[in-house]
Amino acid sequence: MIHTEKIFRPDRNPRLQELLTRFDLTLPENTDDNVGLYDGDQLVGCGFLKGNMFQGIAIDPAYQGEGLSATLISALIQLAVQRGMTYYQIITKPSMATMFMNLGFRRVADASPYAVFLENGAGSVAAYAKSLQEFAQGAPEPRACLVMNCNPFTLGHRYLVEKAAAENPWVFLLVVEEDRSEFPFADRIRLVREGVRDLPNVQVLSGGDYVISSRTFPAYFTRQESLSAAQGAMDAAVFAAVVAPALGVARRYVGTEPFSASTALYNEALTERLPPRGIEVVVVERTSANGEIISASKVRQCLREGDWDQVKKLVPESTWAYLRSGAAEHVIENMKHKE
Amino acid sequence: MKETKLCHSIEDAIRACGLRDGMTVDFNHHLRDGDYVIPMVMNAIGKLGIKDIKVFSAGIFNGMMNRGLTDLIHQGVITSTEVTGNSSILGGMISRGELPKVCRFHTHGGRARTIVEEDLHIDVCFVAAPTADCMGNCNGVEGPNAFGSIGYSMSSSRYADKTVVITDNLVPYPLQRTSIDESVVDYVVQVDAIGDPNGIATGIAKPTKDPLALIIAEYASKTIEFSGLLKDGFSYQAGAGGPSIATTRYLSEIMKRKKVHGSFILGGVTGTSVDLLEEGLFDTIMDVQCFDRKAAASLRDDPRHREISDACYAMRGGPNGNRSCAVDSLDVVVLGALEIDLDFNCNLVVNSSGLITGGAGGHTDTAEGSKMSMIVAPLRRTRYPTVVKKCTSITTPGKDVDVLITEYGISVNPKNQELALRLKDAGLKVVSIEELQALAESMTGIPDEVRFGDRLVAEVIGRNGEVIDRVYNILE
Amino acid sequence: MTIKHAAVAGTLESCDVMITVEPSDTLEITVDSTVKDLFGKKILACVEENLKKQGVTAAKVQVQDKGAFDCTIAARLEAAVLRAQKEG
Amino acid sequence: MRIRRTLLWIPGNNPAMMANAPILRADTIGLDNEDAVQPGDKDAARILIRNYLESVRGKHPLELAVRINDVTTPYWKDDITCIAPAQPDAFIVPKVERPEDLYLVHELLTQVEKEHGLPENEIKLLPILETALGIENAFLIASTTTGRLDGIMMGGEDLVTSLGALRTREGREIDYARCRIVSAARACNLNPIDTVFPDVEDIEGMIADTKYSRQIGYSGRAVISPRHVTYANEVYSPSEKDILYAQEVLEAYEEGRRLGKGAVSLHGKMIDAPMIPRAQQVLEIAKMIRGGKL
To answer: What is the CATH number of the domain that holds D13?
Structure first.
């Protein structure tokens, strides 16, 4: 008799390890809940819930073809609904996509050979595209776009936006909404808004459920060396299939990070995949302060170290004011603790 | 003297054949979902800038579509297909009107007849061959991607203008065991792999544990037992679906118990058929395609297991061709169906939603040729009734169907009163097909009608080349 | 009856249906079904009838059907609505 | 007395299996809201069971029973109040240990019947004895006079835990309980229904165990797999030999009466009064199984 129940201590479960390894997966990290599929006391399948994403789904090949994927996904949906969510996403290998689509998942974007992005439940990519379209109505053309996490908004970001704003009649700036960064989304987008207020042709938008940051892209299912390429491919796929057509955007600006191999791979994936779909990619060298590249990670490092002098050189006035205010205190404290 | 027929690449072979826009190319489908040959050839044709090709293949599987055929249809390289079976991706595209020209569905025998009578002229036949020599002698039983019988290339390789053998196992001349010989081959191409061995046996049911399928199989085997046909010299064919394979297993128990010795098993062959041969229940297997590795190995090793051509399997007589074919000597055939209606008409091509999803295969041929044709099918599939008032599309006419076996009972075509009496005498649960249809409807509710458009997208062709049914585009 | 919070009943297994209900100001029903072409109207009618029976006039109802019979659809809907009443 | 050669468990939260239940050839379907349903789904399953019963009522000759949760759980009352109005043929009550357990169920059931204007005592009760205490109280439980008791079921899997025994294929660890239940059931003229054979794949073992069950007096058993049904039905059905013998017994008895003989013999053995109802029963059962054809 097959039944589902929670896997306690997934990190200490050798049978779970074995199951994931067979699917070339590693244990998803920081998940909220999970479901195990058991034949008696034998674990034969697993799935994890992280936010509204289903991750690490595997079913013992000996038990495949008996409709158990439906049982597993149903149990995950129940968990999600108990947490108040009625919209779910899966990023999975292309070979698994059909199985999920047979269970009612819809394709959002295809980043083969790395991954496919699927969704299910209330809300849809079509509705999202429509809402973007409404934002974009009447904006002058041609339009350019930037997608940023801005954790937090720095002078480096500012430089990139300025450049795009100088070169295009209209610029959309999409801020990644997923709350998995140190700074909460509400603060991040506010700082962006404040930081570009003087640029009249820049429109700041929330990325919604579909603009996936590298932080939300499940790293567990691909080898580390191809992770950035996979993330870039997924970003490109969503951008080309959903964001660009809805916003009427023909150009995307990305910044370099000279010492980050992963950013290079990420940008490479965008440069490779967007132009064939009619979107030009403009790669902008990052600006530097005192010979040091400005990046959000650098800012966070300085904050952790309490090097406020350095921070001041890296961020615009609005961000500086926020960081010095009480609002940011606990965020910075948390950052220090995490270390 | 020709030294070799070897070409460097598939492109070279296509050029050498003189393939042009609007021509027809032929394939076998023996590698099924694992097939690399059809996508390799068609992608090469696309690369050469050739358009408007008709693909005449025994079958098109989703695996092939996913390896590029979908794109080639969108690009106008492939504009129509003529097959005996296809799976959901191509079927869906046809139903939605994505192919500019009308597609056709043949029976296996009808396909051979179309070739032999030259109803359709094949410009180039590409033979996926697991083993071949440089002059084109080839077989399907040896090599890393051995699939067994190569029956569905036998007629087309003979009648096509040009024939190209594609293999991943090139052996020194002359190949000892030859199914298609050099006299019909123009070119040979060696490739890295003709297929993925794991994809070859897909779609073939594992021994089923589904209680429904087992009940259907039990009724089916008892129907055979009491049909009056189960005696020494008995001949038999069954499909590769779960209930069919289970029926064969139950039948073997009955044959052992009653000490009946059969003469031949025909068809698409599964490992289960091989078991019956090896247990000595039958003398011979006549094999036009192997459904799994066990069948392929048996064809290679057991002289009682004989390879036959598509024409020999199921092609009706005609001016150019056959005097007879094997299905005409068949006692019993066990078949499936998507739908069966009150007149016992069977639908194998269009599902209840109106989407093309299958094909006749040997259904129509064996139903007509055999003494007793049996349909094994559940009364309903989830909420879709299988037994319906009227089929969405007709593939095999009811006059050729003798009996329907469902989990709720056995229904005999009124044309076969004798069989009905025999089964009733044996205490089997015989019910009218009207009862079964009403029972199905009482469970599922009365379905809405599928809405078709007015664009003809496909024709279902009978054994003699006659149009049995026309399929129109689906309205979403 | 008012829908207090999101709730779900049923599964995506064959012959079953998964029904999710959520609070909403209006009645909004979406039906997705493997048999939608032939039974879509019947499924919607069944859901509407049973919502009425339970006195639900405002809710967002998501139906993911895998070929369930009416008695199953009614059961899953009833269970989802009851679950949406429960505290916690 | 009902014929219950096989009682097939069907998970109460599985619509696909429920839809197929009528064709699986079990004499009784046991729709299960206990072991086969997880705590979080009991609410949904009982509604599904109720709707299912309503949708198939009168359509099939087979007996439809529902296994509720035991009387120590928070579920059993809801099970009864929700499902009883749909009039299952019987409720199966697990882990019964004392007559009081059955009276509890009986009282609630009677109340629900009254509220819904249903005929009283029509829904039968089938207790499962599956704890050491339940087994020791077998006769007391079997003699409970609620007017609903229609059989006693043996539950081997939970009993093994209760006994601290080890489950084996041979099943000697549950021998005592099996015999005790048959005896108690027969003493009170109730149907004894044996435990499941737990290994779905082991058909040979299942047949051997069923033959043994028949040998010690059971007239039927619970089964967890549709594949076990046919084999178990066969073992519990009267054989051709049994039927012939029963016919001979009745004929000989009739002849003896006609000729005014006090005693008759058949195959050299005396036929006495207690053999007559037994022979009648065999023929009755055979007739029911074969749809009236003997």
So the answer is: 3.20.20.60
Question: What H or E segment, with its residue span, contains residue B301?
Answer: helix B293-301
Q: Chain D: which residues have CB within 8 Å of chain C?
A: 14-16, 19, 43-44, 47-48, 50-52, 54-55
Domains for chain C: give ranges and CATH numbers. 7-83 (3.30.230.10)
Q: Are residues D127 and D255 in the same domain?
A: no
Percent pLDDT > 90 in chain B is 89
Q: Which of B354, B383, B450 comes nearest C67 by C-beta?
A: B383
Question: Any CB–CB contact under 8 A between D38 and chain A?
Answer: yes
Task: Tell me which of C35, C53, C72 to substitute to probe the interface with D (most D C-beta atoms closer than 10 Å).
Answer: C72
What are the start-end ranges of the E strands in B106-238? 124-129, 131-132, 138-139, 162-167, 187-190, 235-238
Residues D54 and D100 in one domain: yes
D294 lies in some domain = no
ipTM value, please give it.
0.87
DSSP B62-102: HHHIIIIIHHHHHTTSEEEEEEEEE-HHHHHHHHTT-SSS-
Burial A248-282 (b: 16+ CB within 10 A, else e): bbebbbbbebeebebbbbbbbbbbebbeeeebebb
Q: List residues of B whose CB lies inside 8 A of any C CB.
A: 352-354, 381-384, 443-445, 447-448, 450
Dihedral sign from CA coordinates of A88, A92, A97, A103: negative
Binning pLDDT at 50, 70 and 90, where does residue A213 land? low
Are D158 and D264 in a shared domain? no
Residue B248 and residue B334 in contact, taking contact as beta carbons nearer than 8 Å = yes
| Candidates 3.40.1080.10, 3.40.50.620, 3.40.50.150, 3.90.1170.50; CATH matching B6-200 | 3.40.1080.10
B448 with C67: Cβ contact below 8 A: no
Judging contacts by C-beta atoms under 8 Å, the chain D residues touching residue A1 are 11, 36, 224
The whole model's pTM is what? 0.88
Per-residue pLDDT at D95: 98
Cβ distance of D227 and B407 shorter than 8 Å: no
Q: What confidence score (pLDDT) does residue A61 get? A: 85
Instruction: Give the pLDDT score at B476.
Output: 74
Q: Which residue of D lies nearest to A82 if distances are taken between CA atoms?
A: D40
Structural domains of chain A, with CATH: 2-123 (3.40.630.30), 127-338 (3.40.50.620)
Q: Which residue of A has its CA nearest to D16?
A: A67
**Confidence grade of residue C88 (pLDDT, cut at 50, 70, 90):** low
Confidence of residue A221 (pLDDT cuts 50, 70, 90): low
Q: What is the pLDDT of residue A249?
A: 93
Q: Report CA-CA distances (Å) from D4 to D8, D158, D188, D243, D286.
A: 10, 22, 17, 18, 12
Partner chains of D (3+ C-beta pairs under 8 Å)? A, B, C
Is D1 contained in some domain? no
Q: What is the pLDDT of residue A209?
A: 80
Query: Are D245 and D142 part of one and the same domain?
Result: no
Please check whether residue A127 touches C, CB under 8 A: no
User: What confidence tier does B457 reach under pLDDT thresholds 50, 70, 90?
Assistant: very high
- Judge whether residue A157 has pLDDT over 70: yes
pLDDT tens-digit profile of D30-47? Answer: 999 999 999 999 999 999
Domain-ending residue, one of D195, D221, D236: D236
Residue ranges making up the domain that contains D277: 240-289
Q: Give the pLDDT of residue A214.
A: 61
**Would the pLDDT of B195 be above 90?**
yes
Give the per-residue pLDDT at A211: 82
Q: Which residues pair with B105 in a beta bridge?
A: B83, B460
Q: A81: which chain C residues are within 8 Å (Cβ-Cβ)?
A: 6-8, 20
CATH 3.30.450.40 assigned to domain B211-449? The reply is no
Nearest to C18 among A77, A84, A85 (CB): A77
Q: Is D40 on the interface with A (CB under 8 A)?
A: yes
**Every domain of chain B and the residues it spans:** 6-200, 211-449
Structure tokens at C76: 């899953």
Distance CA B236, CA B310 (A): 17
A102: nearest CA partner in chain C: C34
Structure-model confidence comparison of residues D274 and B421, the more confident one: B421
